[in-house]
Design a protein that fits this description.
This protein has 144 residues and is an alpha+beta fold. Helices cover 21% and strands 22% of the residues.
Length: 144
């Protein structure tokens, strides 16, 4: 028996509807069904002011970096912005310490999120095999 969880064979897991509803007015740089064709990493997030990121969990680091860099840019320019990043609670990773810890507010989600298989293979929601967190980067300039 391996001492670790097997990695999912797919990144096609939809944001739970309860969370999706909370962020319905936010810009989504990782839209399904074709996030590979729409590369939110290449887009400018600053004009949107409200950004919700549920990145492909097989490649979180560049998304965490983009959240961090966009937040720092907004802060330096005095532009108000709120970016929420939904990811597994992997606090031991390099990207967590480089781009999240001591920069974003971290909110632990109670229980396991239930994701929807967007490929249609599984007809039921599936509990994540890991705890989740929302990392909130929030900048409200002093003069607002």
């Amino acid at each position: 028996m391996p001492g670790y969880m097997n990695r999912s064979l797919s990144d096609s897991w939809g944001t739970p509807s309860k969370i999706k509803e909370k962020y319905k007015n936010y810009y989504d740089p990782c839209p399904f069904p074709k996030p590979a064709e729409y590369n939110g990493l290449d887009k400018d997030w600053l004009p949107h002011k409200l950004v919700f990121v549920n990145p492909p969990y097989s490649n979180i680091k560049p998304w965490a970096k983009k959240c961090h860099d966009t937040f720092i840019e907004a802060k330096n320019k005095g532009i108000p912005i709120k970016i929420d990043l939904l990811i597994p609670a992997r606090t031991d990773t390099t990207y967590f310490h480089d781009y999240i810890y001591n920069i974003a507010e971290i909110k632990f989600i109670k229980g396991r999120l239930k994701f929807v298989d967007l490929t249609g293979v599984s007809k039921k929601v599936t509990s994540a095999p890991f705890p989740s967190i929302v990392c909130s980067y929030y900048n409200k300039p002093d003069n607002v």
